[in-house]
Amino acid sequence: MAEKGTLVVVSGPSGAGKGTVLNLVMETDPRFVYSVSATTRAPREGEIDGVHYHFVTRETFEEYIREGALVEHTEYSGNYYGTLKSEIEGKLEEGKNVILEIEVDGAMQIKSKFPDSVLIMLVTPDYKTLEARLRGRGTNTEEDIRRRLDRACEELKLMDQYDFLVINYDNMAQKAAEDILGIVSAEEHATARNAGFPERFFAED
Amino acid sequence: MAEKGTLVVVSGPSGAGKGTVLNLVMETDPRFVYSVSATTRAPREGEIDGVHYHFVTRETFEEYIREGALVEHTEYSGNYYGTLKSEIEGKLEEGKNVILEIEVDGAMQIKSKFPDSVLIMLVTPDYKTLEARLRGRGTNTEEDIRRRLDRACEELKLMDQYDFLVINYDNMAQKAAEDILGIVSAEEHATARNAGFPERFFAED
After folding, report:
1. How far is A59 from chain B (nearest CA, A)?
2. Concatenated DSSP letters for B68-137?
3. Is B183's CB within 8 Å of A186's CB?
4. Total domain count for chain B?
5. Which residue in A has a C-alpha nearest to residue B186's C-alpha?
């Protein structure tokens, strides 16, 4: 019912299936769009500037920080990652639901700046499934898998900082996508987001 | 994901279509059941004790009050109306989503006793539609219509005491029912209702 779009933050362990589930969300409802992050890391093969990331220099990123052009940013493995204000504000005004797929600390920055944002943690049903998915990729070293599993444990401890928990069961990504669509639809019905309704109710048109 | 059912309070003006919409909710998802209110008013033609209401004497109702057997109650037009604790607690434990179709003051009592309950206000899109529906019934006197419209205005002022607003557009009761189903489904994903998840995540089964 609300006309402005919703800012939807999705975090969760590497291996939870965020990419798959969020692509299904966007295919099912074209009102959902990704926010493209800015980063100082180098593009990987096949990554396109402006599509997968806005690839910028360290100098440019630090200028963004100084100018307050970012709504959240973090440094990870020696690279900056962040979300440009310009990337999300116009889309929200157009009524798009903007998806930020970001880490926990970025999510906390978003929640404090955009109290109406919806924070969703996407997880596997259990630890075994997460481990199996990470190993199943076959591209990760044992050390990398351990690091990702440890990180997942840290993230789960912060679950209560999120508004919603969605479980991505094996072969049920569509269900997880529908759960996310349902959560955002419900948020659109929150009375806090419809404070203008009584006035419209009584308006003579 | 939560195994216990959700207490769903639905209020809204007479003429909003609560009965139609809530019947569709229950037909669509059998996990939803009505709570049968207790009342001291006399049964109307066709009303069955234990189905439409628990019809009780004034003495019995006042005993319920003294014993704390009611989770909410109110007096209206000289009659008591209330919800028996026994009517809802067992059903919630069974995983049923229990619907209370009650007035605003009862809703406030429920919210304070059951903070996890979901309060939904169901309304017509505007005042003109509400008036047309009340007149369309043909069974109400002009005085009765005026009284119900005044009451609707009072109720709308309390909208922000509710969690969600659902609009029942003309000929779109199924959409309103789906909105309610979506809201309750989203609530089941609230992290506050899934505090036990991290433990289950790490459990060796």
Report:
1. 39
2. T-EEEEEEETTEEEEEEHHHHHHHHHTT-EEEEE--HHHHHHHHHH-TT-EEEEEE-SSHHHHHHHHHHH
3. yes
4. 1
5. A183
Distance from C-alpha of B75 to C-alpha of B62, rounded to nearest angstrom: 11
User: What CATH number does the domain containing B111 carry?
Assistant: 3.40.50.300
Say if B1 falls within a structural domain.
Answer: no
Domain presence at residue A201 = no
Distance, CA of A196 to chain centre: 28
What the block records as the tokens of A76 is 């990870």
Q: Indicate yes or no: CB of B186 within 8 angstroms of CB of A202.
A: no
Nearest-CB residue to A198 (from B156, B183, B201): B156
Please report whether residue A135 resides in a domain: yes
Which of helix, strand or coil describes residue A73?
strand
ipTM for this prediction: 0.86
| pTM, to two decimals | 0.84
Please report which residue ranges of A82-141 form alpha helices under DSSP H. Answer: 85-93, 104-113, 127-136
- In a domain, residue B124? The reply is yes
Domain that holds residue B90: 7-191
Q: Are strands A32-34 and A97-101 parallel, antiparallel or unpaired?
A: parallel
Per-residue pLDDT of chain A (205 residues; tens, 9 = 90+): 457 899 999 999 988 999 999 999 999 999 999 999 999 999 999 999 999 999 999 999 999 999 999 999 999 889 999 999 999 999 999 999 999 999 999 999 999 999 999 999 999 999 999 999 999 887 778 998 999 899 898 889 899 999 999 999 999 999 999 999 999 999 999 999 899 999 999 887 6
Hey, is the C-beta of A179 within 8 angstroms of any chain B C-beta? yes
Q: Which residue of B has its CA nearest to A166?
A: B189
Contact status of B195 with chain A (Cβ, < 8 Å): yes
Residue in chain B nearest A200 by alpha carbon = B126
